[in-house]
Task: structure prediction
Amino acid sequence: MKNQILKTSITAIAFFWAVAAFSQNENHSSLSLDSFYSKIKSQQNPQIVDARTPDEFALNHIEGAVNFNLQSENYEQYASKLDKSKPVFIYSIGAGRSVALEKELLKNGFKEAYSLEGGIANWIGGGKPFYSNLKSKLSLKEFNKIIADNKTVLVDIGSKYCGPCKKVKPVLETIRTEYGAALKVVEIELEDSPQVIADLKTIKVFPTLILYQDGKIVFKKQGINDLKNEVDVALASK
Result:
């Protein structure tokens, strides 16, 4: 009988720690845009951290955000100003710096920390409100006119601070050279035209490539993989 009680107790303790571990893991994760936005809206004074560089932050950011990351000189000072008992919402250009900061905060006693899937690209690209210190060079009306005036248009949407976005450029040059006037290539960067990215309401990550033919989307892809081949196949079928 005693052995049975002991086994039951051990099982109960093991279950307790398993649940505790699961709950702890549940406190931190990358959230979809809708979940991230909903949780922010549920807080009276949400703690939002932009984990990009000061230069990126100065151009555009979520209203109410503070700017620091693990590489910031005054990291500990910034972190000490946050309330550990309340959720912290973190984003970057993608997810690298935000996830790293999220894990560090949780390791140091913060109750909840969340990073945004797709980062600022997802936030602005999803049409959520943001601060910008400049007016977009390209408007949605101008964008739509480009699509309407050209039979085939390849649109590259990204940021000069995005590593993968830089890898798209040589591929675009190859495509531009090969197709010449038969294909209009449009490059839209967050730093120059944030509002048109917001108005499109379809961008979740950088880079995003969209191919239009006769005003309709032929394909939309995230990232550079197989871009040249997909353009070739799409244009060859017309």
Notes: The domain at 2-132 is CATH 3.40.250.10 (Oxidized Rhodanese; domain 1). The radius of gyration is 23 Å. The CA atoms of residues 50 and 113 lie 13 Å apart. The first strand starts at residue 28 and ends at 31.
